Structures are given as structure tokens and as C-alpha cells.
Amino acid sequence: MASIVGDANVVANRDQLAVYEYDWTRRWHGRPLLAVRPSSAEEVARVFCACREASVGIVMHGGNTGLVGGATPFDGEVVLDTVRLAGIGDVDRSSRQFTVGAGVTLERAQEHARAAGLDVAVDLAARSRATIGGMVATDAGGALAMRYGTMRSSVAGVEAVLSDGRVLTRLSGLLKDNAGYDLPALLIGSEGTLAAITRVRLMLVKRPAHRVVALIGLESFADAVDLVADLRDRLGVTLEAVEFFDRIGMELACARLRKRDPLPAQHVVYVLLQIADEEDPVGLLAGAVDGPASEAMAVAEDRERQRALWSYRETLNEAVTARGVVLKYDVSVPQASIAQFVAAVDVQIRAFDERATLVIYGHLGDGNLHVNLLDVELDERQVDDALSKLVADHGGSISAEHGIGRAKRAILHPTRSSAEIEAMRAIKRALDPSETLGRERVLPPIEASGR
Amino acid sequence: MASIVGDANVVANRDQLAVYEYDWTRRWHGRPLLAVRPSSAEEVARVFCACREASVGIVMHGGNTGLVGGATPFDGEVVLDTVRLAGIGDVDRSSRQFTVGAGVTLERAQEHARAAGLDVAVDLAARSRATIGGMVATDAGGALAMRYGTMRSSVAGVEAVLSDGRVLTRLSGLLKDNAGYDLPALLIGSEGTLAAITRVRLMLVKRPAHRVVALIGLESFADAVDLVADLRDRLGVTLEAVEFFDRIGMELACARLRKRDPLPAQHVVYVLLQIADEEDPVGLLAGAVDGPASEAMAVAEDRERQRALWSYRETLNEAVTARGVVLKYDVSVPQASIAQFVAAVDVQIRAFDERATLVIYGHLGDGNLHVNLLDVELDERQVDDALSKLVADHGGSISAEHGIGRAKRAILHPTRSSAEIEAMRAIKRALDPSETLGRERVLPPIEASGR
User: Fold this and answer.
1) pTM for the predicted model, two decimal places
2) What digits encode the pLDDT tens for the residues A413-440?
3) Residue A61: phi, psi to the nearest 5?
4) Is the confidence at residue B382, as pLDDT, over 50?
5) Mean pLDDT on A197-209
6) Dihedral sign for Cα atoms in the order B415, B135, B434, A438
7) Which of A91, A177, A397 has the highest number of chain B CBs within 10 A, making it the mutation to test binding with B?
8) Euclidean distance between the first and final Cα of chain A, in Å?
9) How far apart are the CA of A341 and the nearest CA of chain B, in angstroms?
10) What secondary structure letter does DSSP report for B88?
11) Residues of A in Cβ contact (< 8 Å) with B416
């Protein structure tokens, strides 16, 4: 390894390896054999060949902001840290694209894009640490996905290394290119189990100059879903984000931020929306929200107050994690099923344990709900099975934006049928026959595939 | 076959099979064993199993509007005609989606969407015959791709049948769903060689109510590319399409339409642009186009005149084909390389044959150029090789939106590297090990893969 990446970029010391041993929620851990920090696709290729020859597994590791243990090693694995895949190319104004190394953080990429008057279309609370490579590998979503799509919609190409060391390069950023199978499309969201993504051709957007943010209290999830449909009709492309959280979420956020509830009364569900336009969109907001919703609404026109309103939503992941061991689910369901699904989850969890605290928040505009269970001593497997069945019954997915990783592989079925899982296994065997990359991740254990 | 789809839906009579024997350009042909018209994924699965058992190849066949022979049988193949995969579901207003059978034409899908106040985001001149299934299988592009993306961007899910009869179903239309590999993303653009797409969950858009169309004459491709960059900056999301054709294209169009040139003088290149907004966008056009461009401009404000301006661009494919045997290329290059690429093609073709007529038209907004050669007696293989090398040298693709099919498989390399082609072969073997679907299409013959 030292002959490939240099002594300084091989981590073998147990103390220095500690940073790789746990994910940030500390729910997943493993003791890696060593960690390597290659600086190019060619070095990644040589690392892969060495590991393959030695029959050692590799786990890709970016900003360690994942929530499903996908980047946490199993004992004895080699960690491939992408931190030195740090190149960042000039923004091409004619295509509104640039090429960026997998290890570059979202925040750094945002700064680079903004200096050219453009922006990255995906944004996440973990922006200061989440890497572009990790975001592509998981098809990250975030709050702006309802307007600009998930990470997939921002990728105009990738450079990637297969486990046998072959490098796939598609970085010219063509908007139309159907010459053969779309390998980048397959790699996006494959969580490092089919190839290592080393560089990304990122498509940028020109976000409107002005925005307004509003927090609205509502008395039911059904009302919140109806509000989203109305807002979408009335606001079109000016609607950038519609987030939500429940009453317990508001309490947790207030406690963690040491701030007051921005609304005078308590509500069942809170909708946070952001409107962006070339001209001041406050008028658009006034025209789009009427009736009772407009009476329980806090509006932020300046950037500082907007950040303050967003902070209630963005602190929730940390606020929940800080409460101790928690069962976390990141699901999506069709818009039309959201209210029904939330009610069904509530009934199911209460049937398991009356004292359980259920905290639901997420991205209402795209049907992505983060379901968290606190204060419970439930059998995780039992909850996993019940939740995944409820999700499937509502036409949803057991993973919306976090991925499957180690955490959800046993419950990929029934979201994915046996036929789909078998097709995935066939693709995995085709591209990584030695099973060097991301072992025991994403694809379920054979006995749990629902066959 | 009759026991699966019924007597009436098996075509074995030589006269009735004639419709399947040629593509519409009549450059590709083959005599099928028979044609079958299944009406469901289950029937498709049974047809596949029967063919696989008999070691007979299958070719998928939609509206027969392809230009690369992808839907034309080889001698002895079974044609799977999608015409009876004709279901069309209600538009769900909360998600702006509906589910549509693979055999439904684009025009029919557009009518259905428009009745709900929405629209299909992809549009093509061949809309009356091109099918949704074929458009997904080829990741069709068209004129609106610069604004709304290619077909891939409009697909929220598919139902597909693998060659062993297993059915993959992902039709709930989730906007965020990263549970395992994105099999629909792999199937989109795979041209019927990995699976048969039987149903599609289509995402619709709300297109603005008002539009203006303008035709502008310019004196160089470089000027045209600069104009596109300016228009994009000035018009943002209101810019729906920027098409182009050259002077010979204008002459061919005028001759075929029996109409006059809409501009008073001749120009080197013509740019057709469409702006759409919620209010009358004529003011936007006036603000976006200035200088010499504004002096050689025809503007169409009403729908009839807009159709008339579009007709010059939309008749070109037929006008060129009507001129007899033609060499056709559908390439894309990065925006920044368009002018250089066009000049290089001109030099190359003239070096081959001074009398050759080169007609270039296409979609300037996304770098997609249709290169046509008339009046030539050139060795097709020689031109293929030269063009594909020029495309690769400019960072482009040998297929933008038409696909590879039978026509371009020998020149998939160098657009795709040997590593990419080997990865595609591995995927093909994984999902269709018996090589029942789309034999000798898309993937190059082994000897020509550039290894």
C-alpha cells in the first residue's frame, strides 16, 4: 500500500484508525486492517488490485455522515478514504458544469459554484462534511430534491474504478448520450458496492436571487399534504423546498437550540417552505397561503431569520441522536399515501410499546419521511419487519435517501421483490466477481432475500 | 405463441409480416419468424420463456420510428410488437404522474396529460407513432431536453420483463428511492437488450401557458453557440428549446414544404428558439435577443405561425431521407466544442469527397447534432470510423438520442472505452445469459470492441 499511495497515506496505527471505527451515530463499528488515502483513479485501481489479490475487502469512506453504516468497516477491511481525491475544476459557463473529486465536501463545492454565480442543486444539513463522492454513491436527496431532483439529476458523468482496476471515465458532461448502457446511472446509488466513484461531473443550477421562508403550523398530516399540492400548483418552479416535522420534533428542536417555538401555539405538524424567485417572493407567499394556514405562520424575509427558521428542521437529526439509542428509518411513500402511512405507523408502534416516542420529520415535497423511535426497548428486528411491511403496503421504499448499507440490508425485501434482488445480485457478480467492494452491504443475506 | 396471446395476436403470414421487415428509412431489414402482440407483462414473460426454450431471438418493436435498425428483426427472430401494451392510467394530480403501457404513442400520452392540464416533458417530431416504451428504451431526447431533460428525467419507474420471465415492477412513482441498485436507470437506454419495458410511470410537467417562437439567421456556428449561452443566462427556465439547421437544411425544408424561406436573406446557420412563460413572453424575447441577431429574426406569436416555423426544423429528417440513401449520424459534443467539431467534420468529409452534401441540424441547446451525408458514394465504414474518431476527439458521443441498435454497434468504441464495453458485456451476460433479447445490437462484435 505504501508503494502505491506513499507512507504518509497509509494509516495502520490503531489510534489513528479510531476515526474510521465508528459511524457518527456510533451505532455501527468495526476495526479496519488499515486505511489508505489514494489521490487518483490510478492509485485507487492499484489499491483495488492489491486488495483483490489478498482477498481483503474494501469499504469506501467519505465524510462519514452516513446513517446506515455503509462507510463503517467490518473487522479486517481496508478503508479507502477519499479525502485526497480533492481536485476541483473550473466552472464551464457554457455547460454550467465542473468536475470535482469524490472527496470534496458539498460545502466546498457549493462555494466553488457560488463564486461563478451558480449553485449545487442538492443541499444537506451535513454539508460541511458530506462529500460529493458519498452523495453520488448514495444518490443523496435533501431538502431541494422536490425542485431540482436528487443527486442523480445533478450528475453529468463520473469517473469510477471497478474492483479489477479498470477505470470507467465519462466526464465530458454530455446532456444527451445514449451510446450503450448508462453505467454512471447504475453506479449512482450503488453505495460503493459496484465501483469506487473517484470524480464527478456536476451540473449546476442558477438559483433565483431572492427567497422567503415560512413556517406554518397545521392540525393534521392530511392538511399538510393538501397544502403541498396547493403550493405546487400555485408556485410552480418557485417552490424550492417543503419540509415538515411533528410536535415532538418541535419540542426536541427548541430544547437543543435553546430557543422558543417560533409560533405562538402548539400544532400537530409544522411545514417549513422556501420560495425563490428573481424578484422578492414575499408577494408569492401571500398569494399562495391563505385560510387557517396563513394565521399560524412565521415568515422570514432576511437571511438571518431564514437560517433561524431552517435551524429547527436541520437540528432534528442531531437532536434525536443525542437522545441516545434510537431506531431510525428513512422511508418514502407516494404523496397520496403520506397521511395514511403516518397514522398506520403510529398505530403499529403503539401496539408494540405504549411509551414509545415517535418523531417524524423530513421532506414533505417528495414524500421522504424520517421515522425515529425513542425511549423504547423494542426488538429492532421486530420493528424493522413491521415498518418495512407497512412501507411496502403503502407503495413506498425502505430507503429514500440514506441508503441500505449495513443497517437495512435484511429488510430490502419487501420494498424490492425477489426478482429485483436476484437481478441486483447478478449485476454485483458481473461487476465485482471477487466481492472485494462493500461486502455484506446493500444486498440482503441470501436467507433473507424473500425467496 | 397462440396459446399465450391468442391466435389473432400471432402474425405468421408473410404478407402481414411485411410491416415488420423494414425500418421506415428502409435502410434496415430482416425476415422475422413471426410477430406476437402480448397484452401484459405476464404474457411477455411467457413469450420470452418460449423463445428462450426454442433458442429464438426476440426484437422489441414499438412505433418503428427508430433510425438505427434497433427494432428491425434479423432473419428468423420473433418480433415482440408492443401495440397491445396499451393501458393508460388516471393522472394522479398530487404526484403529477400516470402509468402508461409501453405501446402507447407519445401523442396519445400527450393528449392524456393535457386533459389534466399537464404535459409530457419530451416531445419529438415522430410523436404520432413513437411509443413511450420505445422512447424509454432509447432514452429519447428531442427538442425540449435542454429544459426538461431526456426521457430518463421523466421516468419515475418501470415495469419490465427479463429474458427468463421474471417481472420487475417499480411503478409507485417515488421521487426518492435509493433502496438497492436503480434497475430502471439501467434499463432506460438499453434498447431492449436487457429487458422488455412493459409499463412506465411517467412524470409530467406543468408547461407555461404562453410561448413565442423565433427563427434567427446567423453567420457562423460560433455565433450560434454564443447566442445559446446568452439566451440561457437571460431567459433561465423560460427557454424551452433551441434548435438549429444549416443553409442546405433550409433549402431542403423549403423544397419539401413548398414554402418560402421565412427570412429575407440567406444565412450560414438558423437558430429556432422557443420561450414559454405564464405571461406573454414576447417581451422576454425582445430583451434577450439584440444586436445583429435581432435584425435577421422571424417571430411567431400565434400557434399557427409557431407551427409553421417549427415545420422547417421538423421536416428535415424526412426531407433528407427522401433524397435517397444517406449516411446519418446522431452525435453530441460539449457546448464548448460544437463550432470546432462542425468545422472538423466539414474538412474531413470534403477530404473524402468534394461533391458530398453535408446537412447538419439538431438541438443546439444540448449539443446534439444530426449529421447527414447526401450525394456521396463513400465507403460507409470509412466514414463511420472517421466520424466516430472525430466525435471522441471532441469529447462527444456517437449516439445522442437515436441509440446504437444495429447501425452504430461497430463504432461504439471509441466513444465508449474498452473497459466500459467490457462492463456492458458483463451486465448483458448477467441479465440475459441466454442472449435472447436484441442479439447483435448495441454491444459491438467482439473483434471490434477495441480491445
Assistant:
1) 0.97
2) 999 999 999 999 999 999 999 999 999 9
3) -140, 110
4) yes
5) 96
6) positive
7) A177
8) 41
9) 14
10) B
11) 179-180
